[in-house]
Amino acid sequence: EQPQQSAEQEPVAEAAPGAGKPPLRVGMVGYAFMGAAHSQGWRTAGRVFDLPRQPVLAVICGRDATAVRAAADRHGWAATETDWRALIARDDVDLVDICTPGDSHAEIAVAALAAGKHVLCEKPLANTVREAEAMTAAAEEAYRRGRLLGMTGFNYRRLPATAFARRMVADGRLGALRHVRATYLQDWLVDPEAPLTWRLRKESAGSGSLGDLGAHIVDLAQYLAGERLAGVSALTETFVRERPLPGGPASGLSAVAAAGTGEVTVDDAALFTGRFASGALASFEATRYATGRKNALRIELNGDRGSLAFDLERLNELWFHDAGQPGAEAGFRRILVTEPDHPYLDAWWPPGHGLGYEHSFVHQARDLVHAIAEDRRPEPSFADGLQVQRVLAAVEESAEKNSVYTPIADPR
Ligand code: SOE
């Protein structure tokens, strides 16, 4: 089906990439780490993939006029705003991409959908189940009303190796699934003097390692398994309860410390076990205190016909054990996921020329453009983001009750 093109959606000018295609004009809110990553995605997707609509980096928004101008220049955005409401009110924006801390996701997403924009929202979808429910209801209504889409930014689904792993599981290569083992380990809070940034306060981040890292591995585990968790038993801990207040500008995950200290109000680490609806068992560990581990997301799945293992720090590889092989020759073998018939790779480099972290954001932009142009509900949708939020809430509830097994509300 041809994408709808309104009068003001002129095809992209001749010299630009995607010339002759209707544009998809993006307005982004937030310009820090995730803003930079998403900018890279929007900037690159239409230059690598043959997309039905050409992403245009129309407007970027942040409260500090000087800083947002600098971000616009660095990342290639045409215009700036300092109030997200002004961005949403613009008629030269088709899609709003939310890269702010979790406390503003719901308000921006609901308003953007009501204003007739598609929405991409960084994970975790919200800070609470209630907010995620409101966002999901708004997205359902906006889809019925105007075919508007709401997508949650679980970018790790969009690496060639994880997407290929999903294909193998769906093709039955693992047989009946018995175990999923997932860890996401970082170490940027090991130093007790690391400042109290927004990620360490419940009112801005919702939770700590749980929502920031645990959300990724819950989504990835469920995506790869092709089914949802039915319940969890959990432990959480906050190792350092008081930290220096942040002072000057933040960069990436760090910030400059100022005078005084404040309380850490989120978990530093979360450990939980889970049960899938099929009876398969899962374990999860999310922490920012795994000294020496920088961005170590690992996941392994064991079925009665085989196993798969993935490590984000070696993201062009997938390890596969086929239990049907004769014992003497069996064992995990490395699949180098760099062939043109692996997911996403026909548009990139010749075989063996691997991809990196940022490509997951390019693929995310690519997939969302296709979903919009083809009038398909995106995956993961806001409803999928809400379901992950319910898992996070069940983890918190279980941890509060000393690991009592906690069913997940509405696991559909
Ligand atoms: C920080 O822990 C963080 O940037 C997460 O917020 C991202 O979602 C993850 O991709 C990398 O680590």
From TrEMBL:
Keywords for the protein's UniProt record, in alphabetical order: Oxidoreductase
Gfo/Idh/MocA-like oxidoreductase N-terminal domain: residues covered: 24-142
Cleavable signal peptide: none
Gene3D superfamilies in UniProt: Dihydrodipicolinate Reductase, domain 2, NAD(P)-binding Rossmann-like Domain
Domain GFO/IDH/MocA-like oxidoreductase stretches: 165-308
Record InterPro entries: Gfo/Idh/MocA-like_OxRdtase_N, Gfo/Idh/MocA_oxidrdct_glycsds, GFO_IDH_MocA-like_dom, NAD(P)-bd_dom_sf
Classification via SUPFAM superfamilies: Glyceraldehyde-3-phosphate dehydrogenase-like, C-terminal domain, NAD(P)-binding Rossmann-fold domains
Segments of this protein annotated with the region Disordered: 1-19
Recorded superkingdom: Bacteria
Pfam families xrefs: GFO_IDH_MocA, GFO_IDH_MocA_C3
Protein name: Gfo/Idh/MocA family oxidoreductase
Source organism of the structure: Streptomyces lonegramiae
